[in-house]
C-alpha cells in the first residue's frame, strides 16, 4: 500500500490536475514507485489529494496517454513503465522479476501482515514476543548511555568476533550459567537471528536436514530453508524433545539439531535436566551437533531453569546462542554465539563479509549494562513484573476462555500456548482479528502440521489492552464459530 502524504496546492498558478501528474511522474521517475505498483482507486486518490474525482480522472488519463500507467479493471491502476524500464534490455524490464529471484525466501504472509500491522494505531498486540514499552528501564538506560559517552574514544570497526571488552565481560557473565568460554570462543552478533543466518550460510551443506522441535520458533522463518537446508520436526513431551523421535529421524543428511530447551518458543516447555543429559549423550554418540538457543533463560519466575546443555558439553558439540533482545531491548541488536574456536572464526569471517560487526555503540552499552551490575538488578525486578502480568493474564483467560480453550501456565518467558477446543479455520480467524483491531500469532506459523493454537503473549500489551483484547478475541471466536469452521 502506498503512503501518500502530499496534496496539490490550491493557491498555485498550476492547475490541480497538472500538479498531480507532475507529482506521480516524479515518484515514478525517481524510482520510489516502481513498475507493478498499484495506485489507490480514484475515489481514494480524490480523498487523499482533497480534489474532485474528475480532477483525478483527468490526471490519470494523461499518465495513461504517456504510457506510464494502465487501468486493470477491478485490480485498479498499475504503473507499467518508467524511463529505466523502457531502456532496460530484459523483456520484463521491471523489479517484479528480480524480487522473485533472490535466495532468501519471503516471510510467511501472516508474518508479513503482523510486521506491518504492529505499527498501526489502535491495534492491540496479543502475540508480540517483546517486552512492553511500560517495562523499559528508562533511567538505567540513560545511566548506561551517559557513562559510555564518557568512555568512548573512537567508534571504528571492531574485531571480527566483536568488541574484545564485551567478549571478556560475557566470558565472565556466562559463568553464572556454568559455561566456561574464553573471549576467543565468543562471537558477538547483531541479534541471535543473525547467528542462525550465519550458521546456515557458513557451515551447513545445502541438501542437509536440521532437526527442530515441533512446534518451534524457527519454523516461522526461512533462515535454514533459504540456504537449501530442510527442517524436520521432532515431537516433544512434557520433558522436551523426544529422543526416540530423534533417533528415528536420523539419516545421512542430518546435519544438526536446533533446540530451545529453556522455555521453548512458542510452547513454553522446559527440557528437564535428565532429558538434557540424555540428549547430550545421544548427540555425542551420534556425532550430531546442537544449536542451543537460550534466548529466554533469564525470564524464569519461580525457579532457575536446569543447566544449559553447553555447560555439560565436554566435546564441543554445542553451539550456544543468547541475546539481550528478550530480557532487555531487541533494538540493541546484541546477541552472542559460543562454540569451538574454529567454528566461531568461520562465523566471524562471514559476519565481516555481511555487516563488519554489530553496532559498536550497542556493544559498549551491552558491556556497561552487564559490567555495572545494572542488568542483574533490572532482571530481578523484571521477573516480578512479568510474573504479575502472567498471573493477571491467566485470570483473564479463565474468565473468557475456560469453556472454549485449554492452556498451560508458563514458568517463565512471555507466552501462553492456548489450544482452542473446536477446529476452526485459523487463517480466517487471524484475518477476522486483524479487521477487529487485534493482532494474534496463530500457532500454524510455528508448526509442521495444522494446529488450533494461539500464542498469547503477556509481555507486550498493557494490562488494560490484554483485558479488552482477550475479551474481544473470545467474542470473535464465539460469534464467528460457525462460519470459521
Ligand atoms: N530465538 C528465539 C527463540 C526467539 O524467540 C527470537 C525472537 N523472537 C530470536 C531467537 C531472535 O532474537 P534476536 O535476533 O532479536 O536476538
From TrEMBL:
Residues 14-82 form the HTH gntR-type domain. The keyword DNA-binding applies. This is PLP-dependent aminotransferase family protein. Transmembrane segments: none annotated. InterPro entries: Aminotransferase_I/II_large (IPR004839), HTH_trans_reg/aminotransferase (IPR051446), PyrdxlP-dep_Trfase (IPR015424), PyrdxlP-dep_Trfase_major (IPR015421), PyrdxlP-dep_Trfase_small (IPR015422), Tscrpt_reg_HTH_GntR (IPR000524), WH-like_DNA-bd_sf (IPR036388), WH_DNA-bd_sf (IPR036390). In the C-terminal section; belongs to the class-I pyridoxal-phosphate-dependent aminotransferase family. CDD domains: AAT_like, WHTH_GntR. GO terms for molecular function: transaminase activity. It comes from Clostridium aromativorans. It comes from the Bacteria. Keywords: Aminotransferase, DNA-binding, Pyridoxal phosphate, Transcription, Transcription regulation, Transferase.
Amino acid at each position: 500500500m502506498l503512503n501518500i502524504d502530499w496534496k496539490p496546492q490550491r493557491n498555485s498558478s498550476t492547475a490541480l490536475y497538472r500538479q498531480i501528474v507532475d507529482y506521480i511522474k516524479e515518484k515514478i521517475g525517481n524510482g520510489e514507485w516502481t513498475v507493478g505498483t498499484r495506485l489507490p482507486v480514484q475515489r481514494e486518490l480524490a480523498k487523499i489529494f482533497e480534489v474532485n474525482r474528475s480532477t483525478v480522472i483527468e490526471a490519470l488519463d494523461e499518465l495513461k496517454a504517456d504510457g506510464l500507467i494502465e487501468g486493470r479493471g477491478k485490480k485498479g491502476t498499475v504503473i507499467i513503465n518508467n524511463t529505466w524500464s523502457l531502456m532496460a534490455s530484459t523483456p520484463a524490464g521491471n523489479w517484479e522479476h528480480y524480487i522473485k529471484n533472490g535466495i532468501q525466501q519471503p516471510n510467511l504472509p501472516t508474518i508479513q501482515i503482523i510486521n506491518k500491522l504492529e505499527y498501526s494505531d489502535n491495534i492491540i498486540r496479543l502475540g508480540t514476543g517483546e517486552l512492553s514499552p511500560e517495562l523499559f528501564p528508562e533511567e538505567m538506560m540513560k545511566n548506561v548511555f551517559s557513562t559510555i559517552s564518557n568512555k568512548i574514544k573512537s567508534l571504528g570497526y571492531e574485531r571480527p568476533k566483536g568488541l574484545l571488552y564485551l567478549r571478556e565481560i560475557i566470558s565472565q557473565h556466562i559463568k553464572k550459567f556454568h559455561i566456561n568460554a574464553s573471549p576467543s570462543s565468543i562471537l558477538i552478533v547483531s541479534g541471535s537471528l543473525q547467528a542462525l543466518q550465519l550458521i546456515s550460510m557458513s557451515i551447513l551443506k545445502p541438501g542437509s536436514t536440521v532437526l527442530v522441535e515441533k512446534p518451534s520458533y524457527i519454523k516461522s522463518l526461512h533462515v535454514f530453508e533459504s540456504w537449501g537446508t530442510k527442517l524436520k520436526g521432532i515431537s516433544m513431551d512434557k520433558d522436551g524433545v523426544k529422543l526416540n523421535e530423534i533417533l528415528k529421524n536420523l539419516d545421512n543428511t542430518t546435519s544438526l539439531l536446533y533446540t530451545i530447551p529453556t522455555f521453548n518458543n512458542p510452547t513454553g516447555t522446559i527440557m528437564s535436566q535428565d532429558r538434557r543429559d540424555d540428549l547430550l549423550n545421544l548427540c555425542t554418540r551420534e556425532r550430531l551437533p546442537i544449536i542451543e538457543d537460550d534466548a529466554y533463560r533469564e525470564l524464569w519466575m519461580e525457579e532457575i531453569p536446569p543447566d544449559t546443555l553447553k555447560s555439560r558439553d565436554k566435546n564441543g558439540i554445542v553451539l550456544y546462542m543468547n541475546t539481550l533482545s528478550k530480557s532487555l531491548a531487541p533494538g540493541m541488536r546484541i546477541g552472542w554465539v559460543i562454540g569451538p574456536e574454529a567454528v566461531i572464526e568461520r562465523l566471524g569471517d562471514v559476519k565481516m563479509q555481511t555487516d563488519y560487526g554489530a553496532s559498536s555503540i550497542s556493544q559498549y552499552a551491552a558491556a556497561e549494562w552487564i559490567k555495572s551490575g545494572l542488568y542483574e538488578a533490572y532482571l530481578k525486578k523484571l521477573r516480578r513484573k512479568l510474573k504479575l502480568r502472567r498471573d493477571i493474564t491467566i485470570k483473564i483467560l479463565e474468565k473468557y476462555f475456560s469453556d472454549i480453550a485449554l492452556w498451560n501456565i508458563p514458568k517463565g518467558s512471555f507466552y501462553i500456548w492456548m489450544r482452542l477446543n473446536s477446529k476452526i479455520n485459523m487463517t480466517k480467524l487471524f484475518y477476522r482479528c486483524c479487521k477487529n483491531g487485534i493482532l494474534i500469532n496463530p500457532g500454524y506459523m510455528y508448526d509442521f502440521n495444522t494446529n488450533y493454537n494461539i500464542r498469547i503473549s503477556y509481555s507486550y500489551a498493557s494490562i488494560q489492552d490484554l483485558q479488552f483484547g482477550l475479551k474481544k478475541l473470545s467474542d470473535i471466536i464465539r460469534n464467528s464459530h460457525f462460519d470459521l469452521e
